[in-house]
Amino acid sequence: MINMISEQINYLRGYITSDENLYDALHEAADTIESLSAKLDELAVRLMVQENLRSGEMAMKGLLDGFGLNSDAIEASSAKLADKERLVEDCGGGWIKISDRLPTMEECQKNDNRFILDDGNRRYQGVFDYTGDRFVRFTFESVNGAIGMETDKCAVRWHNLPEPPCHEP
Predict the structure, then answer these.
(1) Sign of the CA dihedral running 141, 147, 150, 156
(2) Ramachandran region of residue 57, left (φ > 0), alpha (ψ -120 to 50) or beta?
(3) Residue 15 and residue 22: Cα distance in Å, rounded?
(4) 89: number of CA atoms within 13 Å, CB side?
(5) Lower CB count within 10 Å: N or C terminus of the chain?
(6) Strand-by-strand arrangement of the 134-140 sheet
(7) φ and ψ at 109, to 5 degrees?
(8) Alpha-carbon span 127 to 115, nearest angstrom
(9) Are residues 148 and 156 in contact, defined by beta-carbon separation less than 8 angstroms?
(10) Which candidate, 161, 160, 137, 132, places its Cα nearest to that of 147?
(11) Of the candidates 121, 122, 115, which has an alpha carbon nearest to the alpha carbon of residue 136?
(12) 125 vs 141: CA distance, rounded Å
């Protein structure tokens, strides 16, 4: 259809003569048709994008339905998670900056010197060397099978291991 409009514009411009009134009228008509043609092109692109978005939304909905999820369940889960994260942040979450203090002897004995460490990007279990006042990582050399220790220089916060779950008889 758009090519047909372009052909008609060229056809109209071909009839433009030296008569100024006819010339101006036809030129204005051709400009109007050309402008409308550009708007139609833009509208066609928008409609195509909207259709692709709808198709993507339908595919995502089908995928979520396949897992037994819907948008209400996801929003409710996200809200619960946000509430829990806010609660942890408000309470400090039990995280202690290594620069503030290191674990006490009692904390080390309680958890076999094991703690949860955070380096700002990930959380992992680490070991505290009480005699060296440092968190350490164990190393293993595959060539000779030697096990060693090195200071964990990445950790910035630590947390006690959680209490084991209570088992009711």
Answers:
(1) positive
(2) alpha
(3) 9
(4) 6
(5) C
(6) 96-97, 157-159, 114-118, 123-129, 134-140, 147-151
(7) -65, -35
(8) 6
(9) no
(10) 137
(11) 115
(12) 20
- pLDDT tens for 68-88 read 666 676 677 767 666 555 544
β-pairing, 157-159 with 96-97? antiparallel
Task: Identify whether the C-beta of residue 101 lies closer than 8 Å to the C-beta of residue 141.
Answer: no
**Structure confidence at residue 100 (pLDDT):** 93
Q: Are strands 123-129 and 147-151 parallel, antiparallel or unpaired?
A: unpaired
- Whether 41 and 2 have beta carbons less than 8 Å apart is answered as yes
What contacts 108, CB < 8 A, 6 or more positions away? Answer: 128, 130
pLDDT single digits (tens) 88-115:
454 457 899 999 999 999 998 888 899 9
115-135 in b/e form (b: 16+ CB < 10 A) is bbbbeeeeeeebbbeeeeebb
- Output the six-digit token pair for 99: 């620069």
